[in-house]
Input
Amino acid sequence: MSFSIDTQTLEELNLLGKFRQGSIYSLFNRVRTRGGEQLLDSMFRTPLDNASVINERSGIFRFFQEAAMVFPFDVQEILLMREYLDTSAGSSVLTSWTGTIIKRGLAALTRDERYKQAVQGLHATIVTLKKCHVFLETPQLSTGPYAHRIQTIRKILSDPRLEKLRNIDIYQTLPIKTLVFYEHVLKTKLHEEMEGFLSFIYELDVYMAVSDVARSGGFIYARAWPPEKNILSARELYHPGIKTAVGNQLSLDGNSNVQFLTGANMAGKSTWMKSVGIALYLAHMGFPIAAAGMDFSVRDGLYTSINVADNMSLGYSHFYAEVIRVKQAAEAVSQGKRLLIMFDELFKGTNVKDAYDGTLAVTEAFSAYRDCLFIVSTHIIEVGEVLKSHSNIQCVYMPTIMDGAHPLYTYTLQKGITADRQGMMIIQNEGILELIN
Amino acid sequence: MALHTDEQTITDLGIFGRRDSAGIYDLYNHTHTQGGEAILKEMFLHPLSDKETINRRSSILKHFARLHLKFPFDAATIDMTEKYIKLPDERTGHSRGQGTYSEKEIHNGVTSVITMIRQLSAFIAGDVNGISAYADEREAISILITDPAFEPALRGESKLSYTAVAAYDTLFRVRERHKIGQLLRHIYYLDVYLSVAKTAVDRQFVFPIALEKGLSVLQLEDVYHPELKTPIKNNLSMGPDQNVIFLTGANMAGKSTFLRAVSTAMYIAHMGFPVAAGAMRFSVMDGIYTTINLPDNLGIGASHFYAEVLRVKKVARELSQGQSLFIIFDELFRGTNVKDAQEATVAITHAFAGKKNSMFIISSHIVEAGEALKQKSNIGFSYLPTHMNGHQPSYTYTLQQGITDDRHGMIIIRNEGILDTLKNGLKQTQQP
Output
């Protein structure tokens, strides 16, 4: 079963999207090759669901982060090589021969570029093989979590035909016989080996790019535990997209599975929820996360309701849109999945009493699911007073400090419930009431 | 003097249609000419803010509607005239026949101008003669066409010789070109009047009566939204003793539609146009501002609230200049939590209540705010009820006095079966 997450959650957390400003994907997208980008893309789209696989991948990232190696290949050459291998070759040596001779003839007579491309493609392949051979000799690689993969690539490269190819000096005349031979062999008999070799390069690209981001951002790797352990704890967890973010602690497990969050507007409630969601998602990908440390058990999915928009065209009011959202979460939870669910400011599109009743009833009903973890924020502190009595609900708040008429925010979670609100203050700061009176 | 309003209001009311839907403007647009359409659009963009002008235009329209007049021209004639008059004047320095247009075009142009003058002459001699509000415009047209220069056009034969065409061409396109332009403009206005009058007749709209500015009076009987197919009609009465209305009601009970109906009627009434109601009396305002669909495309949570605050501030600034305004806020402060919204709604509504020369309708889902507002005698309370039919809500869309005690939030939550789902779900993950 794969990690389930829906479009709204992905959007609220701003996870995907190459061209979306501030998306988590664009934060990590420092890859150089197109194949690397595709690989990164698929990693983002399919988080892992097995603790040991996650730990293995994060181990490799950590290895590269510590090794701090430089990507040894030239992007242009890889592109040429890719194109060279993609152009179809004759099914037999004979057709390769005729094909090459025709191309050479055409190149001499007309402005046909194909012969030149074939030569350049082979050159790029030779250079890349050479670079890879040198890179594989790096002593660091022979040990560590990536050693096994290195071994398989070494095996590919030790093929006598590739060894011979590698040792060709590209600045010497390339006999047409060699050209035809490799044209044929690389695209037919050694096709799979070459694909494996290229995907190794793409992998390296992703590992190095992501670990570079991690190194410069000071990110760490979470440790994954089997689902049964049912924990999510982190130290100094913060939002990776915010440079001066303040870290906070989180500790949820089966005995304390609900975090009840209060605080004024702009005090940082939503950002905190987003930070938690992003960290959990990245952790399931084995990616580095913005924290000082994190332990998590593998979950079945992630579900948030942070910015529910009303859908006028469907005739949904804001309130109804929220109800539908909660309903979807309830259905997922009741199927016995282990989820992380986050609701920000539930039921704001209704009257105070309904918001109170709704928040209380829904939170209490959800909190009975000890295998799921919840973070719920609200301004209705009376709900917190009732919920306090439940042993599995922890109350925290984002404080506001008043500096005269201006609110200051610490973004540091405190234990307890706060009644802070700034709605009126914003109105007063704008001087609206004075204008009218 | 033009009425103050803004882009937000025009969008809220749907004055102009979007790509896929018709607007209020389209209901009134039966114009035959492009010039008429342009003038109608201009009127929609700039409603009036002056009692006399509004009542005069309204009176013209009312009489036109009463007389069931038809647009007396063939649209092709007018188009041809327009095109012909705009042909460049090549008479200076160039000899005849070297123009870029044919003799045929000239001939057609001349014929259409003559037809237009004759039809116009017949029209103003007809029923419009008795409309006092139209007398000035009628007089202006009359002076233009009884000008001695046009005398041959009114009398001449129907078949024109080549030389006659040449003579008329000089007359229309060179000597009296300006007057033809003025005539066209009168015809465009006529087109607009007849188009709006047709809407009044076809849809049985009523002509509102404009009262003195500053009285804060709005009396509406059987008002409805003109775009609804089967509308429920409502009455509304506002005055100096009740210039603020606090409107409550469940979601989907029809609050926004009611607000749109009232503010559309108010907006259209300021154009002197007929409105979708049984009867309407209103004091002329300096401005109309509605906030029904405030865009919150900024994406961040706090920003919708801030956008609302800025909108209120804009209104407050206009109010502070002593203007008499008609203000609508739908779901005031829905962008923030219920507690902040309650506090802010009370504070702002109280402040608004102090402005006796303006009128306010504020809708809110925070029924708790109503209690605190009852202290002020000039705040009225209305609500749109919801009847529970077992578990299914049904709506009457009929305005009632008071504050609703409908609280269907929990019922909706229960109806969706959320709590049941959670109660009966698998509390423990099954071990494989």
Q: What stands out?
A: DSSP finds 16 helices and twelve strands in chain B. Confidence is low (pLDDT under 50) at residues 92-98, 297-302 of chain B. The radius of gyration of chain B is 28 Å. Chain B touches chain A through 60 residues (CB under 8 Å).
